[in-house]
Design goal:
With 330 residues, this protein is of the alpha/beta class. It has helices at 39-48, 69-81, 98-111, 122-125, 130-144, 156-160, 172-178, 180-191, 199-202, 221-226, 254-262, 268-289, 301-315, 324-327; strands spanning 8-12, 57-61, 86-90, 115-119, 149-152, 229-233, 238-239. Strand 3 (86-90), helix 3 (98-111) and strand 4 form a beta-alpha-beta unit. The two termini are 35 Å apart. Bound molecules: iron/sulfur cluster (2 copies).
Length: 330
């Protein structure tokens, strides 16, 4: 199996969105700089995917890609022109005007968009009234068809409907309604929260914590070398798997990155994570950079990894720890 050979590449047009969701592994939100990928860079990102013999499908994403609708439309056109299977991912936070929303979907379909993924979870619903998710999903089904509309994760629609869908629902309402234990199970296990990004901090109370030593036997070779799902962002970062804030290299030099990985030449922190996982990273940080492990422990291996990286970004100079905005938006 070849290293770095994804079958789905997400192109992050911006890290900004209305959400700031507690489970977000990329730490997206409204406090990021108002920056988006340029149309030229977007074309470059889409063209770059031709390097793989089996071209991956692409999803245009964020943050919230509808914050830059013209760019989203242009990216869809370019992808269609290049023969790339393309879909988009949205939180539907922008869905206030039905007519405008339907017009957007129709324009995207005409430009060649093949499917829409609408994010749906109690974490999104903390800031985005569920009615927007529901209306956007219904419109997407009308325009694209049910088989080209993915509601991720649709099992939460019924749960979310138990609250006032016209308003955001704080997560604390789940505890009030179902009791702490059931609420924690619905939210953490039910969603399958990844403990990276801000989730280990913002949702740490939902999951048991374990000491760093509990993760000593886990490495990240599978994710860092063979992730099927990866991202190119607007700053040039190639982010493997769901590892927000961690880049294996610059996708604008993708040929070189792939050659290096084939030859097993890795950036230093990536090498540590491949061979020794986040526990190895923690030991390096403790021995060389004064990291002190959290007494209360970590909700998962990615929580440990992120916590150590937050320390390393302050105490060292590691090009792998990008984008910097990730570390400024917990
Ligand atoms: S999960 Fe989506 S909507 Fe929520 S903060 Fe991340 S990008 Fe924004
Ligand atoms: S521990 Fe770190 S490198 Fe490994 S999968 Fe999680 S975020 Fe990625």
């Amino acid at each position: 199996m070849f290293a770095l050979c994804p079958d789905d590449v997400g192109v992050i047009l911006t890290y900004r969105c209305h959400g700031s969701c507690a489970h977000c592994v990329y730490n997206c939100g409204p406090r990021w700089k108002k920056e988006s990928m340029s149309p030229e860079m977007l074309r470059q990102a889409l063209e770059a995917t031709s390097i793989w013999p089996q071209r991956p499908q692409v999803h245009l994403t964020g943050g919230e890609p509808f914050l830059h609708f013209d760019l989203l439309l242009e990216g869809t056109r370019i992808a269609a022109e290049l023969g790339i299977t393309v879909y988009l991912e949205t939180s539907a936070s922008w869905w206030a005007d039905e007519e405008k929303g339907v017009a957007y979907f129709r324009a995207l379909k005409e430009a060649g968009l093949q499917a829409v993924l609408i994010s749906c979870s109690p974490f999104h619903a903390e800031r985005i009234p569920a009615i927007r998710t529901i209306r956007a999903a219904c419109a997407a089904i009308d325009v694209f068809g049910a088989h080209r509309t993915i509601i991720y994760q649709s099992q939460f629609l019924d749960v979310m409907r138990q609250f006032d869908v016209e308003r955001p629902t704080p997560l604390s309402r789940y505890e009030e309604a179902f009791g702490a234990e059931v609420a924690h199970r619905i939210l953490w296990q039910g969603f399958g929260v990844i403990s990276g990004g801000r989730s280990g901090y913002a949702l740490g109370h939902l999951a048991p914590k374990r000491p760093a030593e509990a993760f000593a036997r886990e490495n990240c070779a599978g994710t860092l070398l063979y992730a099927r799902h990866s991202h190119f962002d607007l700053y040039g970062n190639y982010l493997p798997g769901f590892c927000g804030g961690l880049t294996v290299g610059d996708w604008r030099e993708l040929g070189q990155v792939l050659d290096d990985f084939q030859a097993e030449r890795y950036p230093p922190l990536i090498e540590v994570l491949i061979e020794r996982g986040p526990y190895g990273l923690m030991k390096l940080a403790r021995e060389d950079h004064g990291y002190v492990p959290c007494e209360e422990g970590y909700t998962g291996k990615c929580h440990l990894c992120v916590d150590v990286r937050r320390h390393l970004v302050e105490t060292g100079d590691f090009t792998e720890l990008q984008p910097r905005g990730f570390y400024e938006n917990f």
